[in-house]
Amino acid sequence: MVRAAQRAFGGMPARFVPGHPIAGSEQSGVEASNAQLFRRHKVILTPLAQTDPAALAVVDRLWRELGADVEHMQVERHDEVLAATSHLPHLLAFGLVDSLAKRNENLEIFRYAAGGFRDFTRIAGSDPVMWHDIFLANREAVLRTLDTFRSDLDALRDAVDAGDGHQLLGVFTRARVAREHFSKILARRAYMETAVSADDLTFLANPGGA
């Protein structure tokens, strides 16, 4: 988006404030609208050196008024972070569902798919046109992330082929610990939303009590 704006305007206008709300679902269209969509979700603003601080403050305040948690970072860093945490998972979900659907026995495969498959592939129900545009626009960062993941996937394949249980257990254990840490972050955010106000005091519920 920054590159497109620079081409269109011949340079980045001082009051052009790039940003990205990290919220949404696999649903699209006005029928899927949600007035609380941005509450307690991240919004990343990526101001440039020439961005007007006053304009940045206005946009920052707008998102905070909608209940969002606003952060600022360099646009290149944003592209790398989103390529890893959002774009790659969507690519994997689209690819897996497409791969299985092309098999002759696909009806039998999907018939026996359990909840884990449903949860992992939910995002494959996202708008194909939108994700087509995203992958082409952020292809450099996506390719770097995809290449790293492909190397890790090759290592997992080698471990399975060699019957290397130690390697597999190490990967699975590290992944479980990382996932539990991520879950605690989400749980902490949910507790912070539970606030009970009394007079001028606000009490926040904490995990585990007190």
Describe the structure in your own words.
With 210 residues, the protein is mainly alpha-helical. It has a domain of 73 residues: NAD(P)-binding Rossmann-like Domain (Rossmann fold), CATH 3.40.50.720. 59% of the residues lie in helices and 10% in strands. It has 8 helices and 5 strands, in the order αββαβααααααββ. Strands 1-2-3 form a 3-stranded mixed beta sheet, covered by helices on one side. Strands 4-5 form a two-stranded antiparallel ribbon. Helix 3 crosses helix 7. It is globular, with a radius of gyration of 21 Å. About 6% of the residues have low confidence.
Classified in CATH, the superfamily of the domain at 1-73 is NAD(P)-binding Rossmann-like Domain
Which structural category fits the helices and strands? mainly alpha
Alpha carbon gyration radius: 21 Å
Strand content: 5-15%
SSE pattern, N- to C-terminal: HEEHEHHHHHHEE
- Give the strand order of the largest sheet, numbering strands 1, 2, ... along the chain: 1-2-3
Bulk shape: globular
Give start-end ranges of low-pLDDT stretches.
195-207
Notable features of this structure?
59% helix, mainly alpha, 3-stranded mixed beta sheet, Rossmann fold, 210 residues, two-stranded antiparallel ribbon, 10% strand
Could you outline the blueprint of secondary structure elements for this entry?
Blueprint: H1 2-9, E1 19-22, E2 42-45, H2 53-65, E3 69-72, H3 75-101, H4 106-111, H5 115-121, H6 128-137, H7 139-162, H8 165-193, E4 195-198, E5 201-204
Parallel strand pairs: 2-3
Antiparallel strand pairs: 1-2, 4-5
